[in-house]
Amino acid sequence: MAATRNDLSTAPGSWSMRRLPDMDEAQFDQWQTLLEHRTGISLAPERKSFLETNLGIRMREIGCSSYQAYYEKVVSSPDAVVEWSTLVDRLTVQETRFFRDPDAFKLVADYILTRPREVLKQRPLEAWSVGCSTGEEPYTLAMLLNESMNQLELPPLFGITGSDISKPAIDKAQRGLFNARKLLGMDEALKTRYFRPAERNSVEIVERIRERVCFTRLNVLDLKHAPMHGMNIIYCQNLLIYFRRWRRREIVKRLAERLAPGGLLVLGQGELTDWQPPGLQRVPSENVLAWIRRQSDEE
Ligand SMILES: C[S@@+](CC[C@H](N)C(=O)[O-])C[C@H]1O[C@@H](n2cnc3c(N)ncnc32)[C@H](O)[C@@H]1O
């Protein structure tokens, strides 16, 4: 009979109290290959203890005592898809914050403010935060676009999409509810304009911003299935750092195809080195890695 988590944590000698055996090299290879094949994330050998810890936590939760048995569960059991979805959330780093990279956000604001008014009036601006985690980045973009449109005295015609591989992260992003600590250090005027107090020390994004942001679950390795096209801004930071160089290039190429001519692509500093993505022109900046898509696809 299956024991409850409580029984197991109090029963000395039960499997939950036992330390999982160390992961050997072949097992590490097997898990690393699966993770990289399905998500693009490449785990260096130094991160073996990260893998052991996070697999271990999940294995204890479901009462699985060997890495091999758990591997079978993730790849071939009837609930493999659901289990994988839970596991991927545990194996991804979801650290994020509002206005995380001020220089990059300033570049985005300058980009909007210097666009021809006629263009901004004709068609809503579309921005996409790729690997958006729990939503702080796409909501920051929404605040920024709103501020810029206000400054230009234009109606707030824009839409933001946030996408991530983790369903729990996307669910949290969709709620638009954050711990008040997340606003520490943020400009007071922005706090007042875009957040309102909610229950138990949390704050909520105001409706007029929330309604401009939508979220979807999307693996960046599956960009060919993504419906996003003609984006004015694609913002992808702190995701490609987990990928090998060749894969970063592939993904950047795919993202570039999703930009509108004249659209802006922003990555994190140092996330792509020694390579010029075709069809894109580097934005001169010391602190921000960004490109504009050329008007025609000629080099
Ligand atoms: C460190 S967070 C970055 C969040 C935000 N972009 C920022 O810079 O603050 C990385 C995010 O990438 C997501 N991620 C990892 N692999 C992914 C993949 N293959 N497809 C889509 N998202 C992925 C993770 O779930 C995580 O939320």
TrEMBL record:
Coiled coil: none annotated. Its EC number is 2.1.1.80. SMART domains: MeTrc. Residues 16-271 form the CheR-type methyltransferase domain. InterPro entries: Bact_Chemotaxis_MeTrfase, CheR_C, CheR_MeTrfase, CheR_N, CheR_N_sf, SAM-dependent_MTases_sf. The keyword Transferase applies. It is an enzyme of class 2 (transferase). It catalyses: L-glutamyl-[protein] + S-adenosyl-L-methionine = [protein]-L-glutamate 5-O-methyl ester + S-adenosyl-L-homocysteine. The keyword S-adenosyl-L-methionine applies. PANTHER family: CHEMOTAXIS PROTEIN METHYLTRANSFERASE. This is protein-glutamate O-methyltransferase.
